[in-house]
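User: I've been going back and forth on whether these two constructs are worth ordering. Before I decide, could you fold them both?

Assistant: Sure. I'll take them in the order you sent them. The first construct and its C-alpha cells:
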Amino acid sequence: MDDSKIGGFIIRNKDFTYQYNFSLEKKLDNYKYEIGSEFYKEIAENFKKEMEELYDSKN
C-alpha cells in the first residue's frame, strides 16, 4: 500500500482485476457530502446561538 495512505485496508486479487477498498481515504470520499452537511449544520447552529446570546446581552 502507498505510504501516504492511513488507516483501513485494500484487498486485491493476484491479477489486480478487482479490489475492495476499505481505506480511510475512500470512506471519507464516499461520505464527503454527509460529513460536509453535518459540519455545516453544526456551524450554523453555533452561529445562531452566538447571535442569540449577543442579542440577549444587548437587550
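The second construct, handled the same way:
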Amino acid sequence: MRGRESRFFRSGVYDAVELAGMIATEALTLGAETVQIRSEGDWLIVTADKDWLEPYGQEAFHAITPFPEAGVNSMLAEVLAVAFSAAATTVTHAGSTVLKGEGPPPPRHGSARMQ
C-alpha cells in the first residue's frame, strides 16, 4: 500500500484530512446520522452517533476490506489510517484499541483517530 499511495489519494500522496473525509463518508453511508471531523493537536478525530464498523469488526483496520455499500470497486478506508498515519486508535462503547503508534490518544470522544 505504502508504495502505491497514489492509488488511494487524489493528490497522489497521503493526506490525513482527505482520509478523515473518506472515513466520515463511510460512517454516513453505513447509517450514522451525526458525523464530525475535528482536530485536537496532532490528531484528526472522526466521531459518529453509531459504530459504523460493527458489521466489519477489526478486519477493516488490517486488510483491504470490500465496501459494497459504496460501489463495486470500493474499499473501507480505515486500513489506510493504519498504513499511512503515525498513530491510529479506535474507540467504541466497549473501550479503545491502539492500532498503531505509542502514547495516549487525545481524550475519549469518538470512534476513529489518526495522527
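Notes on the second construct follow. The beta strands are 35-40, 43-48, 88-92, 95-100, 112-114. The chain has a mean pLDDT of 86.
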